[in-house]
Amino acid sequence: MLDLMEIELRRKKVGYSRLDGSMKRTDRTNAIVSFQNDPDTVVMLVSIKAGGVGYIHSLVVLTVGLI
User: Fold this and answer.
1) Which of 45, 41, 38, 48 is nearest to 61 (CA)?
2) Residue 32 is part of which domain span?
3) For residue 20, what pLDDT is reported?
4) How many domains does the chain have?
5) In contact, 9 and 43? CB cutoff 8 Å
6) How many CA atoms lie within 13 A of 58 on its CB side?
7) Model confidence over 23-61: pLDDT tens digits?
8) Among 11, 16, 18, 20, who pairs with 47 as Cys (CB 3.0-4.6 Å)?
9) Quick check: 37 and 15 in contact, CB under 8 A?
């Protein structure tokens, strides 16, 4: 799901960061720092593993500038 969202964000030239469970700790930290500090990064894509079930849910956090 995040991959599909990424494709659309790239197509529309929207700055974003991605955070998912497959990333190394340093990469996750860099994604968060980018979202917090880079004014061109307006979307944060985050995958969250559902408790004990193993499903992956996608959460898109939008800044006020995009709404």
Assistant:
1) 45
2) 2-66
3) 82
4) 1
5) yes
6) 12
7) 888 888 888 888 889 999 988 888 765 323 344 444 455
8) 20
9) no
β-partners of residue 44 are 17, 61
Q: Which amino acid is at 3?
A: D
Q: What is the DSSP string of the chain?
A: -HHHHHHHHHHTT--EEEE-TTS-HHHHHHHHHHHHH-TT--EEEEEEE-TTT--EEEEEEE-GGG-
**CB 45: neighbour CB atoms within 10 A?**
21
The set of long-range contacts for 21-24, using a CB threshold of 8 Å and a minimum separation of 24, is: 21/47, 21/49
- In a 13 Å sphere around the CA of 57, the CA atoms on its Cβ side amount to 8
Note the residue count of the chain: 67
